[in-house]
Design brief:
The complex is a heterodimer of chains A (116) and B (116).
Chain A lengths: L2 E3 L4 E5 L4 E3 L2 E3 L5 E8 L6 E7 L6 E3 L2 E6 L4 E6 L8 E9 L6 E4 L3 E6 L1
Parallel strand pairs in A: 2-12
Antiparallel strand pairs in A: 1-4, 3-9, 5-6, 5-10, 7-8, 8-9, 10-11, 10-12
Chain B lengths: L2 E5 L2 E4 L5 E8 L5 E7 L5 E9 L2 E4 L6 E6 L2 E6 L8 E8 L11 E2 L3 E5 L1
The chains are: A mainly beta (116), B mainly beta (116).
């Protein structure tokens, strides 16, 4: 069965600090997809990144970077030089491709507070 | 382009009253549709998903039901609301693919339901 763990329930940092959000997953499939979503105070879930299980290259997008390591089943998310607008709940998710398309499992989320 | 509409944005309902939340998707056909609930300060819980018209799968037993009367319309209902039904309800859609395309879910803007 699939499972996603985000051990950090809440993190507080001061603006301009770097912060890493941890995500550990479990799956028995060899083909799967990992995602990060951001949920700002407005509530809407915003897609950040998708990574498939065959691509272990780390990715950088502006101040965001992701470290995918299959050996440790982790897909960690780092925000460099954090800003107040980064304050949100961040969800890591795992998807196995079933016969009908997609079946997601979300982690419990990490609430990030960036203080000015 | 594809868009997802969810309404109303907020709702305050008395205990025992009925509920109807609607979600519609535009710009795609035959999507997978999902209803999630997020209780205050907690993670996302999948309530229902649908792979086609009239096809509903329930993930958790509860006071709620879902229906898909049209390809791109997904409705969440209750005959009698309970206090525990309060929460943030999110509708989402995804493409249907058995192969490798997996772009994740696209979420609606959510409905904040308060049962009083």
């Amino acid at each position: 069965a699939q499972k996603v763990t985000q051990a950090q329930t809440e993190i507080s940092v001061v603006e301009k600090e770097d912060v890493t959000l941890d995500c550990v997953y479990e799956t028995r499939d060899t083909t799967y997809y990992l995602f990060w979503y951001k949920q700002p105070p407005s509530g809407e879930l915003v897609f950040l990144i998708r990574r498939n299980s065959f691509d272990e290259q780390n990715e950088i997008s502006g101040r965001y970077s992701w470290n995918f390591q299959k050996s440790t089943s982790s897909f960690n998310f780092t925000i460099t030089a954090s800003q107040v607008v980064d304050s949100a709940v961040y969800f890591c998710a795992l998807s196995e491709v079933d016969n009908y398309g997609q079946n997601f499992v979300f982690g419990p989320g990490t609430r990030l507070s960036v203080l000015p | 382009s594809q868009t997802i509409h969810q309404w109303p944005a907020t709702l305050v309902q008395p205990v025992g009253s009925p509920l109807s939340l609607e979600c519609t998707v535009e710009g795609t056909s035959n999507p997978n549709l999902y209803w999630y609930r997020q209780a205050a300060g907690r993670g996302l819980q999948l309530l229902f998903y649908s792979v086609g018209i009239g096809q509903i799968s329930s993930e958790v037993p509860q006071n709620l039901s879902a229906s898909r009367p049209q390809d791109r319309q997904f409705i969440l209902s209750s005959k009698k609301l309970l206090l525990s039904d309060s929460g943030f309800y999110l509708c989402a859609w995804s493409v249907k693919s058995r192969i490798t395309r997996n772009y994740g879910y696209t979420f609606g803007s959510g409905t904040r339901l308060t049962v009083v």
